[in-house]
Design goal:
The complex is a heterodimer. Chain A is an alpha/beta fold. In chain A, about 30% of the residues lie in helices and about 25% in strands. Chain B has one domain: MetI-like fold, CATH 1.10.3720. In chain B, about 45% of the residues are buried. The chains are: A alpha/beta, B mainly alpha.
Chain lengths: ~325, ~300
Amino acid sequence: MAENVVIEINNLAKYFPITSGLFFKKKVAEVKAVDGVSFAIHRGETLGLVGESGCGKTTVGKCVLQLYRATSGEVIFEGKNLCDLNENQLRPLRRKLQVVFQDPYDSLNPRFTAADIIGEPLQINSDIRGSDFDRRIAELLDIVGLAPYMADRYPHEFSGGQRQRLGVARALALQPEFIVCDEPLSALDVSIQAQIINLLDDLQDKFGIAYLFISHDLSVVRHMSDRVGVMYLGKMMELSERDEIYKSPLHPYTQALLSAVPIPDPAVEEKRKVIVLKGEVPSPINPPSGCVFHPRCPKAFDDCSKLIPQLKDAGSGHEVACLLYKTSWP
Amino acid sequence: MTDTQQPNPSEMAEVTQARPHRTLLNDAWIRLRRNRLAVAGAIIILIFALGAIFAPLITKYNFAKQDLDSIFLQPSGVHWLGTDELGRDVFARMLYGARTSLAVGIFTQLIVLLIGLPIGAFAGSKGGRVDNLLMRFVDIMYGFPDILLIILLSAVLRGTVFGNMGGGIFVIFLAIGLVAWVNVSRLVRGQILSLKQRDFVTAARAMGGKGTYITMRHLLPNSLGPIIVSITFGVPRAIFTEAALSYIGIGVKPPTPSWGAMIHDGYNVMFTAPHLVIVPAVAIALIMLAFTFLGDGLRDALDPRSRR
């Protein structure tokens, strides 16, 4: 099992300082965007990461890729803790860790042609040039379902779905082992979403790439993921096999989230009970004590505001951080 | 599964029809040509430039040659725009004055670019304390009244080796350039700061691109549009500043002609020989208008949001 792990994240935390002052920046507060998140991703596996806006999903993705340097914690890849490496030591490893972004209009340089965009990772990381380079570009375009003649077009000449295909091709160029997909579908139409989902699925089958699939769309995550993690206010609330989490969610937050998914069957939809959470997501600058979810939790009791629940296996690999379960008690 | 090998045919067809293949600069060029005011501006600039370059071929008069027998002549077939208080041909002086003005416009902006671009790019891409320090310095520069600083600088520079280069024109380049770069450096820094947040820059970092690579390949090329526009607007400002300096007598040294100096000389006889003021004033107004039109046109043309 452990040999199959591609990347392992231990107790990852990222606090963004809020500073004031003109020359001598004083730290006045911290935004605890991610606070003690741990998980591992296996070869060829997709881990879905869900949660509402601002819960730290994207920050986790960026910390894993060392685009943000974590405040504390470990990111273990090929036996090395990436958080300890400097930029020069990281460079050779970066080619194996890639990213697909949310907004295909923002993630492609408008002055680059498609070939420039897809070829950039090759230019930076390899010696492939000339006709080999052109061949590789054509191959990559073909893999993501674009025609070779599109190589010298500019991003503004592509549609949204085609741009996202370019983004995927760029991530694939260096044959990575792991790709962070940071809400790769949320900027696309539903029909295009399906195409990209299938593309990502096929690529995983073909190349055995592991995905960290970040999304707020529960149905998409259900379709894509092997395992699913649920985040709330910078913490992992629940982490389990996909079917397990969708059929029998343990955490009250997950239960509330899943109850909000519409069911495409009017008869069933009518009977669907929605758990409406009270209040708003608290500020990550000053998160609640104890379990961060307790002020909104319908099942909260006294201890919830005092004790911090631990993410622990509550049976058959279903990890949950909630004091309703004995395993989570600190 | 569906077609990963074959893209959706309708999607492809739609795109091929929607827009012929063009680069961004190509596109901008086409839009610039459609803008009549910008084209008019470019033509006026071209006429002045050609006049300045080929001045000796266009007029047989020397700009410095005095002819005290024929002072204050009205425009005529012999002297197209008349003569001034020393009997010098006004048309010749206007043509040669265009040399001064255009040189000032272009060379000051070159200096501005040479100083402002690297400082702005450096501050923007490094960030942190370096950025803070550089930008506070820029703020201080910004706080001074421009024209006062330029006057002081040119007074100081006159005493140095630059003082006599090209009839004092070099001092003007330097004085204006050393003051005006702050605008460009602020602009470049702002552009780079906002571009740094874009995902394509993050992607370049994720694939291991180094700082200088990202600045040269991604950040600077994408801030080129606003820089070109700013420089184009900077040219008429510099021309105007030179005219103002020459008008108050600290610009280029006589007899080198400058439109500002010509207005200064004509000012005393404005009511008896109005052409001495009108000719250089119209020239200044025309060239400023031309550059402003061109700058406006460039701004519209280089703005990707206005693409059709």
